[in-house]
Amino acid sequence: MIIVLLGPPGAGKGTQGERLAARLDVPKIATGDVLRAAVRDGTPLGLEAKAAMDRGDLVPDAVIMGIMKDALASPSAAKGAILDGVVRTTPQADGLSQTLASLGKTLDAVLLFEIDEDELVRRLSGRTTCDVCQRPFFGRQPGEACEEGGQTGTLVRRKDDEPEAIRKRMQVYRDQTAPVIDWYAHHGANMVRVDALGSLEEVEARMQSALGL
Ligand code: AMP
Q1: I need a labelling partner for 157 at 20 to 30 A (CA). Which of 4, 101, 136, 140 fits?
Q2: Which CATH architecture fits 2-116+177-210?
Q3: Residue 158 among the catalytic residues
Q4: Span 59-84, pLDDT tens digits
Q5: Closest CA to 151 of 133, 128, 129
């Protein structure tokens, strides 16, 4: 099953995507996680992406398409994948559809997380993230330890969770990612809308019932 998670930053795509991937026993492909690991490791990909990420801008479509193709063609994605944070522009939506066609796969659903912008700003400005396993935490401080991923990590405030970058990411979402909703509607995708306000369990239950799981 191939499912695209769409929605503004902070809507819970990463957390819910992880749960959905576990439930369907498929990998979650999160371009943001791949890019942050590349920045941390200082690879050419990381060096290319870092400045745009820190500002809250998007990295170029061509970079994202490369990551997406490799991940979808990998044997671990044979049964499907949950795409978190990709696609974010209409050229990426087009590119994904061509990549899937070339791999003989189809897009089963686009899961759209809907949430009020004030709630997002509140969530993101209180978020810390483990520098190793990438899990987000709310109400925990930078510098605290994270033991969740099997390896000890440290909680950090993502540069793009600073107020100015948050505002920038919201604007980028409105300008460049929101049009993807219309693109999918126009191309007849199975668009499933989920109210993303509520506890993890509430949103997870809504998501599963919306997908008929
Ligand atoms: P995320 O973890 O999904 O919030 O992504 C963090 C940052 O990585 C974004 O603000 C972008 O700079 C970059 N990024 C991740 N996915 C994409 C994408 N599909 N297209 C362009 N930039 C991306």
Answers
A1: 4
A2: 3-Layer(aba) Sandwich (3.40)
A3: yes
A4: 999 999 999 999 999 999 999 999 99
A5: 133
